[in-house]
Every structure is written in structure tokens, then in C-alpha cells.
User: Fold Peptidase inhibitor family I36 protein from Microbispora catharanthi.
Amino acid sequence: MAANKRGWRYTTFFTALAVAAATVVGAPRPALAGHDGYCDVAAEDGNLCLYRDSDYTGGMLDFTRTDHNYTSSADVFWIDFSESGININDQVSSIVNAETRCVWYLYRDIEFGGGGFWLPIGTNISNLALVSGNYNDAISSHYKWTGTKECTNGSTGQ
Ligand SMILES: [Ca+2]
Ligand SMILES: [Ca+2]
Assistant:
């Protein structure tokens, strides 16, 4: 009888785990101005992924297009696919470039001002303090560039 009872307990336990896992994986991702909380690599829609802390941690926000400033209500870090509510302006400490066709330029001020640097295709930066001029907690706008004009291959986002 004891074995049966234990077996039932294990079954219940694992069933509960499976339900919890399914809930997380199946959770709908709100479409917030092109941000979905995933750092996707795709030729037609590659992301620029901005992380709050160094080494790609602390919350992330993904972009598919140019953004003149980070003042939108959607410009907040995501943690485990839910919004943290923390605005990304002057908070970014590491960057992943998941774009395969265009390059990204990142700037200290809004409207592409205050000096900046570019991120070649396939380049990540684990600590913006190491970029010449120290861009840790400084980025306020970014531009997506084909090499000759603004790159608009990504889905609309602000
Ligand atoms: Ca930071
Ligand atoms: Ca700034």
C-alpha cells in the first residue's frame, strides 16, 4: 500500500510540473510595438537586443528597426517574457546583434546625437564600459543601416 501511495504522489508531482511548464511555454506574448521579448536571428527581421546588465543579463528588449528615442511606454526591459517596466534609456550595459543583413549604430543621445559607435553583423558586446568612450548606461537611440540607407527589413517597432 505504501508503494502505491508513493507512486501516486510522484505521478501527481510530475503532472503538476508538466502543467507548470506548459503554462510558461504556451503563454501568449503581447505584441508591443514589435517587441516580443525574444532575441531572434532572421534575415528578414533580425533583432538588436539590449540588456540591462553586462554579459547579456538583467532583462532585455529586442528591436527590429531604428528608434529615435527610448521614450515610448514599450521601451522597457523584458524579463522571462513579461515587462519589467524599467525604461531602457541610459540603462543598457550589453548588446547582441541578431541581424544578418544590416548593421546597427548606437548613440549616447536621442535623435542619433552625442556620439556613437557601430555594431557589425554578428557582433555582440558583453560590456559597454569597454567601448571607447564608455557607453555603459548611456545609449539613448539607435539606427539600422543597410550601408547606403536606413534598413527597414524588420517589422514595425518603436
Ligand atoms: Ca545597465
Ligand atoms: Ca543617453
